[in-house]
Amino acid sequence: MEKQVTLATEVTYSGIGLHSGKDVTMTLQPGKPGTGIVFVRTDLPGQPEIHARAELVTSTLKATTLSENGAQVFTVEHLLGALFAMGVDNCRIRMDAPEPPVTDGSGLVFAQLVQKAGRKEQEAEKKIYVVDKSFSVYDGDKFLIMLPYDGTRVSFTSVNVHPLLGTQYYDVLLDEETFLKEIAPARTIGFMHEVEQMRKMGLGLGGNLENALVYDDTKCLSVPRFPDELVRHKILDVLGDMSLIGPWKGHIIAVKSGHSYNSQLAKQIIAYREGK
Ligand SMILES: [Zn+2]
Fold it and tell me: How far, in Å, CA of 260 to CA of 276, rounded?
């Protein structure tokens, strides 16, 4: 029997949010067995809790937003992806703003915070959903499929019109080592031609050339960590968004998909499990 895992101690990190640009101090704390991942908005009256669950996703525009008890948290997918890949089941995330720190734009700092805090097994069984049928979301030539598989695997094909990006493919059989080496360091992507429009919408205010992989029309203005950093980051996003169904074993095949597809697939799986 695999047991549930929480942090051994708490760990704090401060920074600014990717989209809001707001200062935030975040403390990851151990959580009780069976409680899952819970955000706590310490800046709001009554310190409302927001559970990291697929049914609470209310927006997927550029990032994943969760809403509960009249409060929101957004751009949670990189932090959630890191907690999922590092096997953390129960964690309280206290934040004094709606958005976790962007850190270096990837999942690496969050994974390192888990390592710094240490992990502890708990006296409760880890409830892993072993995918037992196929699920899919199709939209023209874009799709996202979950299949039964003995392991946690993601195969992603990303297609971008930018001449330096084009078609990228990456396949990962997830464990802690592959996550830390191949997926966690991959950062968010940004395009100069989108920056002005995004800022008008109040998005990307905390982004810069270090915490995002930024391209103009012909070149990359940042220093890439991988030649295929975009598709690796997309896998991080998938892991974060799909962690909202709890721990799972299965194979995700994604073609040109993004946050809204992840959310639709997660909700489909939740509905199926509830109907069983
Ligand atoms: Zn992302």
Answer: 25
